[in-house]
Amino acid sequence: MIEISLDETMAIRAKTEKNKRKPSTNSAHNHHRKKRRRLAISSETTISISSEPQKLATSNRLNPIRSPSRASRKHEKRSSSQTDGHRRWVYSARDCSKFIDKIMVASYNILGVENASKHPDLYHRLPSKFLDWNFRKELIGNAIKFYNAGILCLQEVDRFNDLDELFHNYGYKGVYKARTGESSDGCAVFWINKLFSLLHQEAIEFQSFGLRNNVAQLCVLKMNKSKSKSKTSRSFVIGNIHVLFNPNRGDIKLGQVRLFLEKAHSLAQRWGNIPVIIAGDMNSIPKSAVYQFLASSELDIQLHDRRKISGQLDFSSSHGAFRFCSEGTKWSNVSALRSFRWSDEEIRNASGSENVTHLQHHLKLYSAYSGVPGNCRTRDTNGEPLVTSFHSKFMGTVDYIWHSEKLAPVRVLETLPVDALKRTGGLPNEKWGSDHLALVCELAFNDDGNMT
After folding, report:
1. Long-range contacts: 328-332, Cβ < 8 Å, 24+?
2. Which of 19, 143, 426, 446 is least crowded, fewest Cβ atoms below 10 Å from its Cβ?
């Protein structure tokens, strides 16, 4: 038996208590690493959409970015870490300070109620609450209110009266065009009535051209108050489209996009060569022939397989959403030495004539998101978002906002990183009311000052 004196016992106790208070080397390292992360400074403005709509800020207007104080930057970082509930404004690398007249545009596929119910396999992992229209409508409404976009281009709208009533409270007016055939959803364009006036509207029923039951909208809007000294009219064409989904019918997809662009260009010329904004769900990925046609204004359809026009069939939802970080788009390599067999009917669908295989459009279009720098966590090498739609069978980008050369992008609302989206388990969820994310950008008339 070992005996220990009282003095020795007290010394041992003191040493033990000292060791308890002293953190381990690893613990201290982790503590300082977490502290450094919390204090890292972000130069981007962050928007957080609450899962409880009634707790959203009462102000529905987004403030321009300002340089915060050091103390406020520390607080901002703690509240703006990029989790699945946050999206950030990022700004153009060019000096846009001379651009005065600006337009905020949002494009949003809101997930039609009937479409969600007809395709339960896409949402089988989600609680039924997240698909409930009343629940989703409140999230969508609060998101729209928070973004405060002057113009909304919505797709898969089958409850237009609900939205019209809701958005009326926010100062919007809107027009709607339902799809032909048995489907009940359609497209809707809304605008803030104090900011814009509707000068003209028309709709395209693609069925009339043998191109299925999808529809598109074209509106001519005018800014009610111009702050610029420019004598140029502040009118523009806004186009809204939801392209056919079927991946096998690339001829139909191209035909719909071609006709849509033709009519948008014709309308712009008729109203004095005014700028054009194109928004919508193109059901085509950024590496696709459809994207190439939009971006480069031409396409030789014989160099493409009709079933791969949209890129959907080659797109793997398990890894494709973020593979573009290290893989560029090389259109010249797409079957450059191979011709694919197209039937006369398919050529006619795509080009409008059995004898034409080279498509062209007269709009010189630029992608709003490609015009504003992003990073590899949220963008591909084209500058497009990595993900705009996410459900159990797809995770990738099909939504876009394009503009003509008389407009310049000032800022865009970033989408969410792939890892953050994966943590949500799918869309819609408690924060986002659709299986798509809204795209939002601010465009400016670029004829102010000496900038072009």
Report:
1. 328/381, 329/286, 329/287, 329/380, 329/381, 329/382, 331/292, 331/296
2. 19
